[in-house]
Amino acid sequence: MPRQRAGTDGATGTEGAEGESGATRELLLAVGQLVEQARVAGELRADVTVADVMLVIAAAPPRLTDPERQEAAAERLLEVLLRGLRPGRD
């Protein structure tokens, strides 16, 4: 998994994407660009990396048999994850 560079040039902010498949490389580069744009806009903590965002994408709420509880769990997980990525807001 590529890591965010400490001093990103603003283009992609990733290193190590070269060894990935074409589609994976494109995804990682796109996420890197989004991470950099969000950071510049002040909407993302400075220490959040592409790998962190990929972990968030891969996270899934537990499987529940009740659709309403499933939706509530998914919404809560997303809320917690997004709050954790934002800088200094409660």
UniProtKB/TrEMBL annotation:
Pfam families attached to this UniProt entry: TetR_C_43 (PF21597)
InterPro entries: Tet_transcr_reg_TetR-rel_C_sf, TetR_SbtR-like_C
Comp. bias regions, Low complexity: 7-23
Domain Transcriptional regulator SbtR-like C-terminal, residue spans: 21-87
Region (Disordered): 1-23
Protein name from the UniProt record: TetR family transcriptional regulator
